[in-house]
Structures are given as C-alpha cells and as structure tokens.
Design brief:
It is a single chain. With about 300 residues, the protein is an alpha/beta fold. The chain has 13 helices and twelve strands. The strands form four sheets. Strands 4-3-5-12-6 form a five-stranded mixed beta sheet. A three-stranded antiparallel beta sheet has the order 10-7-11. Strands 1-2 form a two-stranded antiparallel sheet. It is rod-shaped, with a radius of gyration of 32 Å. The mean pLDDT is about 90.
C-alpha cells in the first residue's frame, strides 16, 4: 500500500510505455515528454518499487524480473481504467442485447406498453423486456435499487425525488357490452345509478372510487355489484353480462365487444406518468427506451 500511495497515474503510464519501448528516448516521444522528464519519472518508479525495473542492455534496456511480473497486470489495469473513464458510447438499438425491467399494472400494459411493443421489437430486435407487477409501495425502492428501470403510475401519489414524464391525461367513459339495451344513448343520471356497476379495486375488495365521490357530491349513489382487482377481468365481465363500468377511455376504445358512451356526470380523470431514478437518467439505453415509449403514444 505504501508503494501505491507514492505512485500516480502518470507514473504508471510512463512505466507501461517504458516496458513496451525499452528505450527512454522512444518512450519520451510516445508520451510527448522530454527525455529528462521521463528519466526523472523512471527514478521515482525505481524508488517506489525498490527495483531498477529497466537495466542497460546492448540495445536499449532490458526489464528486470520484477518488471516482467508487472507488465501484464499493469497493461490490463490501464486498459480497464481507460474503458471506465472513456466517454459513453451512443446506444445502438440494432445491436443492443439489453434487458429492461418495467413495473406496470394491467391498465398500463394495455394503454402504454402494448402500443410501444411493435416499435421496440423492430428497432431493437435483440433486446428483452420484462414486465413485473406494479406495487406502488415498492416503487421508490425498486427504482433506486435498479430492480426495475421504469415504473408506470399516476402522477398523483408518485414519491418525491424521482424523474417523471407525464404521458397523457386519461378520462373516464361509461362502457358495457355491444348491444347493451341501456347504452344505445347516453343514460340519464337516474338510469346510470340504477345500472349494475363493476369497479376495479387495486387494493382489493373495495366497492367505491372516483365515480362514487362525484355522485356523493350530488347526494347520489350507484349500484356496485362487483369488485375486481384487474381491468382485464373487468372487460371480460362487461362483454358477457349487462353490467357496466366507468372505464379509462384508452381501454374502452380498443376493447372488442364493448360499447362506450359519455357518462351523465363529470368524473375527474388522471395523468399517467412514467417514473425513473436519477441513477438511470443519463444512461443512453434507458434514455432511448423512454423516448420510444413517448413516441408510441
């Protein structure tokens, strides 16, 4: 350790060059230094290693046994250091083999990832995408640890300190099966409340949501007959029964077998955001992925 503290990077570069050239004059030329400067550095190296390192020979200089031991480890160390401090190379999606991990609920899978998937596969065919369950309480930890690269969530409720990009504003529409007798036109508020509704409860088991809050302001309630944890199951229920639901418009718009109409009351929508940690913010591959997702929406 004492030897290491007496060395700096310039001395190690000089030693590497001297071991390659075995000649002070040629080494000085490669290093763009004067011959006396290289001779001074060689003296410091000899003192630090307590070894002559290079001794006079018939032609140039010959490395000592200690110098021969140092040659390969020193070369590898300098090459590794060079790679570490080199400028970040541009991301080439066509050649990349990156594996990305993103956290998304089924709504974000359908509304955000599905539209982006074809473009991602075409532009970066050798990459992989892992979609994991989005658990809001784990968001900050998963992003900070690198367990996930991106997290899709509403802007409201996102932890402070994360980078966020609002992707779109979502609104609610009333949806039911195609041919539903009560959805041929926009229902009245009384008809709306009398219909049997399905709600998604991400926490599980809840029977109320933003629609019920909007109704409560008018002193009204609706008939919520079913609570489910996922939108995918909800849409299957809607397509096969006379139940209805207040669905995010992006889901209702692309769902086969469903009809959507305007609800008879205004229910506040929400902003859908993409979130990531500072540790990934400047990474070229991560930045490319974010740009691809934004461009696909």
């Amino acid at each position: 350790m004492n030897n290491f503290n007496r060395l700096d990077l310039n001395l190690l570069i000089t030693l590497d060059t001297l071991l390659a050239e075995r000649n002070v004059t040629r080494a000085a030329g490669r290093l763009n230094l004067s011959q006396p400067s290289v001779s001074v550095q060689l003296a410091k190296l000899r003192e630090a290693f307590d070894d002559p390192l290079l001794v006079p020979a018939q032609r140039g200089m010959r490395p000592t046994a200690r110098a021969d031991e140092l040659r390969e480890p020193l070369r590898e160390a300098l090459e590794s250091l060079g790679r570490a401090v080199a400028p970040t190379r541009p991301f080439d999606p066509a050649e990349a083999t990156t594996t990305w991990r993103v956290a998304a609920a089924d709504y974000a899978e359908l509304a955000i990832l599905l539209p982006a998937l074809a473009g991602l596969r075409a532009a970066a065919p050798h990459t992989r995408l892992a979609v994991v369950e989005a658990v809001p309480s784990r968001m900050a930890r998963q992003l900070e640890s690198g367990e996930v690269d991106l997290f899709f969530h509403t802007s409201v409720g996102a932890p402070r300190g994360l980078h966020a990009r609002v992707l779109f504003h979502e609104r609610y529409v009333l949806a039911g099966r195609a041919g539903h007798p009560r959805l041929k036109r926009r229902p009245t508020l009384a008809q709306f409340c009398a219909l049997e509704h399905v709600v998604v409860s991400l926490a599980g088991g809840g029977f109320a949501g933003p629609t019920d809050e909007a109704l409560a302001e008018k002193g009204l309630t609706r008939r919520v007959a079913l609570s489910v944890p996922h939108f995918l199951f909800m849409m299957s229920v809607l397509a096969s029964t006379d139940m209805v639901a207040m669905l995010p418009e992006r889901l209702a718009r692309g769902a086969a077998g469903l009809r959507m109409v305007e609800a008879p009351l205004e229910v506040p929508g929400y902003e859908m955001a993409m979130l990531w940690h500072e540790r990934r913010h400047r990474d070229p591959a991560h930045k490319w992925l974010r740009e691809q997702i934004v461009a696909s929406l």
